[in-house]
Amino acid sequence: MHAVRALLLRHAARVSSLTVAEGRELRIAEIQTLAQKAGKPVKRVAAATFKQLFGDAVHQGVYVEVTPLPPWHEEELVAGIAAQLEARAAPFVLVLDGVQDPHNLGACLRTADACGALAVVIPKDRAAQMNATVRKVAAGAAETTPLAVVTNLARTLRLLKEAGLWIVGADAEASQLAHEADLAGPIALVMGAEGAGLRQLTRDTCDFLVRLPQAGTVESLNVSVATGMLLYEAMRQRVSRSSAR
Amino acid sequence: MHAVRALLLRHAARVSSLTVAEGRELRIAEIQTLAQKAGKPVKRVAAATFKQLFGDAVHQGVYVEVTPLPPWHEEELVAGIAAQLEARAAPFVLVLDGVQDPHNLGACLRTADACGALAVVIPKDRAAQMNATVRKVAAGAAETTPLAVVTNLARTLRLLKEAGLWIVGADAEASQLAHEADLAGPIALVMGAEGAGLRQLTRDTCDFLVRLPQAGTVESLNVSVATGMLLYEAMRQRVSRSSAR
């Protein structure tokens, strides 16, 4: 429901039609209203027909036909950053340096989307890529937050730096705690792979490194949870700063 | 490796023996030293034998025979809180009000463990219970952080209150942001179920409610990521407070 709502509100141009299962009137009333406002056709079918059409996948009685979000390249990243800086917003980009598990990629996409990230950047090689599992775990975020797949991550990080972002790496050995660093400005947050952490070349490209305060080590946290904690810290600083103005 | 290390360091009494696969000498050297210090026998077997013994489960070449952590009840919770308060620590307990997905329960256990939670509390009915999936996703945390399964969650919350904890509920409609509330003291953090949030009775039992600052809604975050964000906020406040002393 959340994903469908987000699509109709923020990306209606990419929605072509909706199909809803009968018998879920209460829960889908809002979706139907949004679809009508956006001028999108809604087809009502019996619950059994819905199941026949779309199989046994977990759903909430709504199917949306949507044009996939085209993958981003370096040009779109740079243009997106420029547009946000021009609008006096502080863009932030999430960079995953070789995350292997599609569940983790999907979970990071979902969190990045909820936190308003401009895009998520992943390397083309030796990393989980967009697939059906990622889309499912992302719970709709794959249709709303662009994924940029790049061939040379260090080069892309330098490009993001030139575009005006601070490159912040998450590292268990960092001397600085996340809340002691300035994460309220335009940043790219770089997370390492499960267990392995940041690669040396990536670490060297960062402007500064931060760590999480905790009893254990960063490796003891799932990468999607550690990403959530650091995105939260960035949001907290942004909220605190704007309320202090 | 992390789980094995934690078991040997913190719960050696429950470890009876270890089996390691040959050919992983570098990575298991530390584990072997810890096992020797704890006086635990280590059996070395060929990689092929290891696979025969323990199957194709994902592992890092180490098998540990461990007495399961006994489930906690209200008495152990109350005693644990009293012991930490006596030691002038600020205990915190994670309460999951009806989380349905074993993956989410496992992920919450893992994060709670990494953040040093005293225990995780779940209701006996209409909620995911401890099973093999939970143990696997928890990555060892199920063997180190106690799980308390209770029949009446509201009664347990009142008990935790009497034991000296503040009951903090996570709620998207809360007027207060998490970082505006005091989470550095002794607290029980109560998270709602996926999608549904806190039940009314649970909400009424809370001392105060907090929400996360974000572009979307709490429902747009996975419950294990939202839990991670709030546990991070509690840790941040504890670290800031102790460094300010």
Would you kindly provide a written description of the structure presented here, covering whatever features stand out?
The structure is a homodimer of 245-residue chains. The first copy, chain A, is α/β, with parallel strands linked by helices and 245 residues long. Chain A contains nine helices and nine strands. In chain A, the strands form two sheets. A six-stranded parallel beta sheet of chain A has the order 6-5-4-8-7-9, with helices on both faces. In chain A, strand 4, helix 5 and strand 5 (119-123) form a beta-alpha-beta unit. In chain A, helix 1 runs parallel beside helix 2 and helix 5 (102-114) packs parallel to helix 9 (223-244). Chain A is elongated. The mean pLDDT of chain A is 89. Chains A and B meet through helix 5 and helix 9 of A and helix 5 and helix 9 of B.
Which secondary structure elements does this structure contain, and how are they paired or packed?
2 copies of one chain form a homodimer.
Chain A: H1 2-10, E1 15-21, H2 25-37, E2 42-45, H3 47-54, E3 62-66, H4 74-86, E4 92-97, H5 102-114, E5 119-123, H6 132-137, E6 147-150, H7 153-162, E7 166-170, E8 187-192, H8 200-205, E9 208-210, H9 223-244
Parallel strand pairs in A: 1-2, 4-5, 4-8, 5-6, 7-8, 7-9
Antiparallel strand pairs in A: 1-3
Helix pairs in contact in A: 1-2, 5-9
